[in-house]
């Protein structure tokens, strides 16, 4: 008993025949390899399909007519020309992946499955390319492949063949079109560069303006804070001066209430009088002087008289004291006179 190892039928001539000694011989006992289907005819008519493993045939009556491979098969689709939607001639080739699902239909449904599928792939590819422009052909290759597979499967169902996928290998464009595409790409790149440069300039100007705005805001806020601090400082200074003056007045009042307070007040008035006369005519030529300028004791007595009058009337009139014309007169009874030096 001999065992035949027949090769895959896609490399055979049409109808799976191998002239000479290619087909397995009927030796009653046959061993079919895995992932192969042998079509057996009895007296010239289809009888059955031998499954992988041990099989028995009747000599002279049974004959192995076709050998089909159930593995995934790869077929190179020859290069062909196609015209796109924008009238550009392209040279395209591809690779087709398929598998036989029904060995009976693959053997009796079509004379040469490989040739039929190849021609169907080429015609379908030309038809699909005619629906797309050149730019979309490069961008939508995946969609183009799926459309070709779908169209092939619709026609190959009667052949027992299932197209798994189709891949475009190379797309060749005419030299002039290629040069135009390169020029278009360069122009697009220059355009993008110009747009990016303009956007950079705009962003820079916006950033500079925003920086100036923030600087002005911060400067105004700083000036505002400075003015607030200055006003608060001045208010505190005025309050401190007022408190110091009130304290000084309180201390002066306490000092005057003590023994010999009038004598101390007279001494202070005399010192201020002398100091005032030392600054005469330093700031202006017009000076208002009393008639008895040299009488220091008289001036001191007049000042003390005014102080005594205010001290006596202050308990009775806390809101203020009205001064009489006699109190404001000089000790000699004459009003002050204006002199020009």
UniProtKB/TrEMBL annotation:
Species name: Amphiprion ocellaris (Clown anemonefish)
InterPro entries for the chain: Band7/mec-2_domain (IPR050710), Band_7 (IPR001107), Band_7/SPFH_dom_sf (IPR036013), STML2-like_C (IPR032435), Stomatin_HflK_fam (IPR001972)
Record protein name field: Stomatin-like protein 2, mitochondrial
Residues covered by the Band domain: 27-185
Entry's Gene Ontology BP terms: mitochondrion organization
Bilayer disposition of the protein: Lipid-anchor
CDD domains, per the entry: SPFH_paraslipin
The keyword Mitochondrion appears for this protein: yes
Pfam families to which the protein is assigned, alphabetical: Band_7 (PF01145), Band_7_C (PF16200)
Keyword annotations: Coiled coil, Mitochondrion
Location in or out of the cell: Mitochondrion inner membrane
Record field: compositional bias (Polar residues): 331-341
Annotated GO CC locations: mitochondrial inner membrane
Task performed by this protein: Mitochondrial protein that probably regulates the biogenesis and the activity of mitochondria. Stimulates cardiolipin biosynthesis, binds cardiolipin-enriched membranes where it recruits and stabilizes some proteins including prohibitin and may therefore act in the organization of functional microdomains in mitochondrial membranes. Through regulation of the mitochondrial function may play a role into several biological processes including cell migration, cell proliferation, T-cell activation, calcium homeostasis and cellular response to stress.
Keyword Kinase appears in the UniProt entry: no
Chain spans, region Disordered: 311-341
Family designation: Belongs to the band 7/mec-2 family.
Coiled-coil portions: 225-259
Primary residence: mitochondrion
């Amino acid at each position: 008993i001999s065992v035949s190892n027949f090769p895959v039928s896609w490399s055979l001539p049409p109808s799976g025949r191998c002239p000479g000694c290619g087909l397995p011989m009927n030796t009653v006992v046959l061993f079919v390899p895995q992932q192969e289907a042998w079509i057996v005819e009895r007296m010239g008519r289809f009888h059955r399909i031998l499954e992988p493993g041990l099989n028995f045939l009747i000599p002279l009556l049974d004959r192995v007519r076709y050998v089909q491979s159930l593995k995934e098969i790869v077929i190179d689709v020859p290069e062909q020309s196609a015209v796109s939607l924008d009238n550009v001639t392209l040279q395209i080739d591809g690779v087709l992946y398929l598998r036989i699902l029904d060995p009976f239909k693959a053997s009796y449904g079509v004379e040469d499955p490989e040739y039929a599928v190849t021609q169907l792939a080429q015609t379908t590819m030309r038809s699909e390319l005619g629906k797309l422009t050149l730019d979309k052909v490069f961008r939508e290759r995946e969609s183009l492949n799926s459309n070709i597979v779908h169209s092939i499967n619709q026609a190959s169902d009667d052949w027992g063949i299932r197209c798994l996928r189709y891949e475009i290998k190379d797309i060749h464009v005419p030299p002039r079109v290629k040069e135009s595409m390169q020029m278009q790409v360069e122009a697009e790149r220059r355009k993008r560069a110009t747009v990016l440069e303009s956007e950079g300039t705009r962003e820079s100007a916006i950033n500079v303006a925003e920086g100036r705005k923030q600087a002005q805001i911060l400067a105004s806020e700083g000036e505002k804070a400075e003015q607030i601090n200055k006003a608060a400082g001045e208010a505190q200074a005025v309050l401190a001066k007022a408190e110091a003056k009130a304290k000084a007045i309180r201390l002066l009042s306490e000092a005057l209430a003590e023994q010999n307070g009038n004598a101390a007040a007279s001494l202070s008035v005399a010192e201020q009088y002398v100091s005032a006369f030392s600054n005469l005519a330093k700031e202006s030529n017009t000076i208002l002087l009393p008639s008895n300028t040299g009488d220091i004791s008289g001036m001191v007595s007049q000042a003390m008289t005014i102080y005594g009058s205010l001290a006596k009337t202050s308990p009775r009139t806390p809101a203020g004291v009205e001064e009489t014309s006699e109190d404001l007169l000089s000790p000699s009874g004459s009003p002050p006179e204006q002199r020009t030096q």
